[in-house]
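Fig. S4 source data, part A: sequence.
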Amino acid sequence: PAMDYAALAEAAAEKMGLYRRDPGGWRGCRRTSEVSVSWRPSAEFAGNVYRGEGVVPGSPQDVWECIKPVAGGLRTKWDQNVKDFEVIEAISDTVSVCRTTTPSAFMRIISPREFVDVVLIRQYEDGTMLSAATNVEHPLCPPQPNFVRGFNYPCGCFCIPLPGEPDRTQLLSFFQTDLGGYLPQTVVDSFFPASIAGFYSNLTKAVKALK
């Protein structure tokens, strides 16, 4: 049976709302001037869900411009963990199936990965933008020989306007990824907090460069 991509995307967005409203159980693991990163055990798979929270010095429009998951978007230019991003199938105006590839990382201990996700974009009445995603299979995306197939469990980013501060944006992000392959848990546990700190740092630079 065909996957119901729209329903899976909707469920991922629901999860993001739950994570956002649920402050309990998060344990801090890394803090920089740009982001505080915390984690808790995932209810979706045998790993952790990570939460990044920081304020980016840029308008919500500029921050969104840098992170929005679209073909030809800016993310491949500034995000060191995204090598390539392509839309495999547009399901609707706001839902698409996408393939992301990542370069090798962590001194090449982590080889290149590929992820196939259904991605949803939503705007809320207060101007908050959400991008939410979760792993799916797609007939046009069989596993590729040079990549390890990884799996994103419900994950996403909220770009939240700060009242009275048009040039600052709260960015709340949730990462929940099974990298696949046979990686030592210690590598996985040190990779994500460092990677999220890098994400916020590189995003901050990218937003500045838009000006």
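Fig. S4 source data, part B ends here. Residues 151 and 178 are 5 Å apart (CA to CA).
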